[in-house]
Design goal:
single chain; 160 residues; alpha+beta; five-stranded antiparallel β-sheet; 2 helices; 28% helix
């Protein structure tokens, strides 16, 4: 039922196909996992097909080793009329242990779509805990910052 599940955790082993030339998991593989988890969380919250509108503030904190147990966690921290902002954490560690260390984190913005490919309304999420309220306020500040960055980035859209 839409508006009920605001978190999703994907758990899997980092595979040899995910390795880069340095012997660690490729950043592109991590980005794919983030997108998959963000989609699953947003679709679960909205009950609709969702598209990725933005992923930003991505920090690669620690490398992930092939064979590590990886957990990608997404949580709705803000809802607009048709969009959902999600906090994403990627943690990894030895599969024989329950310990996981933060390796990557970011924010993703997903937009719900209707059957005609148009943005669709999503259930409102209302923060309740103090942490939820802080993350909600942060999402609003980040939206304002993204708007400024977007304006600045238009300089790079000129055809060369």
């Amino acid at each position: 039922m839409p508006g009920q599940e605001r978190t999703l955790t994907l758990r899997f082993l980092a595979e040899p196909a995910d390795v880069n030339f340095g012997g660690k998991v490729h950043g592109g593989a991590v980005m794919k996992w983030i997108d998959l988890c963000a989609y699953g969380c947003a679709a679960g919250w909205s009950g609709k097909y969702c598209i990725t509108a933005y992923v930003g503030g991505m920090h690669f904190v620690k490398p992930i080793l092939v064979g590590s147990m990886v957990e990608v966690d997404a949580k709705v921290i803000y809802t607009g009329r048709t969009s959902m902002h999600l906090r994403i954490h990627v943690r990894a560690g030895d599969p024989k242990s329950t310990e996981r260390e933060l390796c990557t984190h970011c924010i993703a913005v997903m937009v719900a779509m209707d059957e005609n490919g148009k943005p669709a309304q999503v259930p409102e999420w209302i923060p309740e805990t103090e942490q939820d309220k802080r993350q909600h306020e942060s999402a609003v500040k980040l939206m304002e910052m993204r708007n400024s960055i977007h304006e600045e980035m238009t300089t790079y859209l000129d055809a060369d």
